[in-house]
Fold this protein.
Amino acid sequence: MTDFNVHVPKDAATDRIDSGRPAWTLRHEGRLLPNVSLDPRGRYGAVCRARFDGRTLREAAEYVCECDNGSGPTPDDFNALLTGHTGTIGAKQALLAALAKESGRGDVELVVACCEMQLPEMASLRSGSALRRPNTLPLAVCWLRHRGRRLQIVEPRHASMRTVNLVTEVTVLPEQLASERVRLYQTFAADWCRALESHPSEFARLRAWQLGKSADTGLFEDLMGYGLPAHYLPAL
């Protein structure tokens, strides 16, 4: 397996940023979406018009940007954005993808991408024995793809995990996002253990440590495979 370097913003996952390369920031990029009118006959378009008087996909992006990053009844439940003003990163992307689909825009797709995040070199993580390869952990990141762009639209104060160094990239339906993201993460986690010759318990320990380092645990857990316990053990 190739080692992939993923920019991890300060306070989001680690204590450092590679000073030689700029850190991504997760910011509102609704201006990059097509300026298409929401379908008033569509299920979600009608709700958006009634809920926040939204008329376009860009206005819907403005709305989700203002929502907090909690989860709904189930991971990546984008219905909670319209009922409770809350939703994970995945939920926000899924709602916008559903609205675009209702409006006849097939060029806006919802993507789940698996990649690897480089962990800092921490002697305490090694249990006294040096690993033979760099410490990494998989991420299952969601974004929208529109004409080659990768868009993550959430509250501007949060940091991004986007990277161009991908292992797997899959287009999914908004309603299938939660299950597909967990499935891909589980598969990648097992492959990670095999490739790095690590026991699943080592993976679980690194994952629990990484989640504990995050200033916003819910947001970071969402990126690592939302819905899985911190001490998740991959099935080899």
